[in-house]
Amino acid sequence: MGLLDDKVVLVNGGSQGVGAAVARAAVREGAMVAVTGRRPEPGEALVAELAGAGGEALFVRADLADAEQAKASVTRVVEAYGRIDCLVNSAGLTARGTLLDTTPDLFDQHIAINLRAPFFALQAAVADMVGRGAPGTVVNVITSSAHAGQPFLAPYVAAKAGLMGLTRNAAHAHRSDRVRINGLNIGWTATEGEDATQRAFHGAGDDWRERAAERLPMGRLGQPDEIADFVVFLLSERSGVVTGSVIDWDQNVLGGLD
After folding, report:
1. What strand order describes the sheet that includes 136-141?
2. Which helix (H) or strand (E) holds 41?
3. Model pTM?
4. What is the pLDDT of residues 70-96, one digit of tens each?
5. Using one digit for the tens of pLDDT, what is the confidence trace for 154-185?
6. Dihedral sign computed on CA atoms, order 131, 132, 135, 139
7. What residues are annotated to the active site?
8. How do strand 56-61 and strand 32-37 relate by DSSP bridges?
């Protein structure tokens, strides 16, 4: 038996990167999976890949910056499968901005994607779970930068720190409903989005991954499939009664100094 046999899983921001890795891992563990994304091409390609591997998958086109579309992503899944058992909020915006140069528009973009979207997707998913009197699980993919972060990530840190607080608040509010809500503070990870960010904001070349790995304690960046396995574990019953935990999934230790 798979860890997620017969579970209905929605991965918001699931058409690439960590989200796509979570979708693949969830299908491998027996789940029916829906993924959202703004662009249909990568989302539909992923769904075709999952179906080709014998899985059941659905692509839901959604711009999560719109709170109504974030909620509607859950509604679409419930319409298709009759329920939602698990939600993964993995969409993220990492556009750079410091305290001094962040515009109100950039700040609002970060809040919309990194905090408001998961809030309203979570609202809709928990409403379905509570309405059915059924247990459920949620994992919010956050960031280790939520603790403080780099100076050039000011609006990103502000939004993701909010998501860290929301994770604990919602977990506390719905623990007696048997809805478990946890978060994962991931570190530097080798994804398509990170590649685009490094090239766009830092002038990185084709060897940026190798150069980055040289500066990291374990000599490599985190990998999406490793994170995905951890997310699936948190979604599954094997993680027991754990709720309200925000786990630092990183090779740097918070508070550790050399």
Report:
1. 56-61, 32-37, 8-12, 86-89, 136-141, 179-186, 246-249
2. helix 40-52
3. 0.93
4. 999 999 999 999 999 999 999 999 999
5. 999 999 999 999 999 999 999 999 999 999 99
6. negative
7. 156
8. parallel
